[in-house]
Every structure is written in structure tokens, then in C-alpha cells.
Amino acid sequence: MNLAGYIRVSSEGQIDAFGKDVQREAIVRWAGLNGHTITVWYEEDAVSGTVDGGDRPMLSLLISEAHKFGKFEGMVAFDSTRLARRSVVQETLLALVWSAGLHVFTTTAGELAEDDDPTRILIRQILGVIAEFDHR
């Protein structure tokens, strides 16, 4: 499957340090191991994990360009905390991406599928709450 790589760093320190390189390498490695191709990259610099979709210009662009150019069928991020550190923001962003008809993957959990399986939803949401707790 053709995927867009999504990288987010939340501070200037992460931009200049190792954040983006580590995320990019993990995404490329994961895609190769799972038979996917990264066709385009979207990078958010110094965007907090608490920021919702309206203030994520590159994520908004990713969603709009998916249908405009048809270069990819989904997106992959390093892990779910790169989408958001607050569980409510994470669920909102996932809903936005899914409503655009895109698949969502992370290198640590595989596909974050939009489905009706209550167990999968519970686990995803619990992990999101734990990430938010850990961050605070």
C-alpha cells in the first residue's frame, strides 16, 4: 500500500536533536518490512501533541492531498503519541483521517483500524490515556 509518512516534533529541541531522523528511519524500516511504500512526507515542526486538527497544517494538507493526487491510501506515524498526547485529541484526529477514507498505521502498533470491535477500541483508548498520563 502507498502511504504518507507523518512526522511531528513538539519542540524546537526535538527539531534540532534526534526526533525527526529517528521517526523517519523507523517509518521507512517499518514500511519496508510490511510491504508498504512511503510516497510522500508530511512534517509538523514544533506542534504540541495537545493541538487539534485545525492547527495542524501538515496533517490537514495530508488529508486534503490524499484525494486530490491519489498518491497514497493511508498514513503512518512513528507511534500514536506523534498523532496526539491527549486521548480526546487523538481520537478526534483519527476520526478526521478515517472520514477521509485513509488507513492509519504506527510503527509500534500496526494499523489503528476504524472498526466496531469494542476490545480494539478499548485498548487504543487506554493506551492513549496512558500516554497522556505519562506526558503530564
Question: How would you characterize this protein structure?
Answer:
It is a single chain. The protein has helices at residues 12-16, 19-33, 57-69, 80-83, 87-99, 118-135; strands at 2-9, 37-45, 74-77, 103-106, 110-111. It is α/β, with parallel strands linked by helices. The protein has one domain (2-135): Rossmann fold (3-Layer(aba) Sandwich). Strands 2-1-3-4-5 form a five-stranded mixed β-sheet, with helices on both faces. Helix 5 (87-99) packs across helix 6 (118-135). The longest helix has 18 residues, at 118-135. The chain starts with a strand and ends with a helix. The mean pLDDT is 84.
The CATH architecture term is 3-Layer(aba) Sandwich
Give helix % range. 40-55%
Termini gap: 36 Å
For this entry, what is the oligomeric state of its chains? single chain
Name a few traits of the molecule:
136 residues, alpha/beta, Rossmann fold, five-stranded mixed beta sheet, 5 strands
Draw up the topology in text:
Elements (H helix, E strand, L loop, with lengths): L1 E8 L2 H5 L2 H15 L3 E9 L11 H13 L4 E4 L2 H4 L3 H13 L3 E4 L3 E2 L6 H18 L1
Parallel strand pairs: 1-2, 1-3, 3-4
Antiparallel strand pairs: 4-5
Helix pairs in contact: 5-6
Summarize the model shown.
The chain has 136 residues and is α/β, with parallel strands linked by helices. It is built from six helices and five strands; from the N terminus they run βααβαβααββα.
